[in-house]
């Protein structure tokens, strides 16, 4: 059985922390054991989370398993966004300049 490569990254925003495990797949996203749409039910929160994948044109390329904790829903969405961006840079270092130009690799240092 071939070993799939796994990329692990952490993102933080204010008091929220998100740890993700990214593997190649078909775009399935689980957050704390729940589906993406169930955990972030509103479009603005979903857009925040999906922005790094859309910028890298990798929306359906990876499966994400995410553990988010602390803070509120917007803080968690920002932490997940940063973690995804950091994992994408691990996958392809050439994406760093694109993601950095969009401000997706910047941590929110408050608190």
Helix segment tally: 4
The main sheet comes to: 5 strands, mixed
Rg estimate, integer Å: 13 Å
Number of strands: 5
Which whole number gives the mean pLDDT?
94
Can you give the helix content as a percent range?
25-40%
Total domain count:
1
Order of helices and strands: EEEEHHEHH
What distance lies between the first and last C-alpha atoms, to the nearest angstrom? 45 Å
Features:
111 residues, single chain, 4 helices, globular, 5 strands, Ribosomal Protein S5, domain 2, five-stranded mixed sheet, alpha+beta
Topology record:
Elements: E1 6-13, E2 16-24, E3 29-31, E4 34-35, H1 36-39, H2 43-55, E5 62-69, H3 73-91, H4 95-101
Parallel strand pairs: 3-5
Antiparallel strand pairs: 1-2, 2-5, 3-4
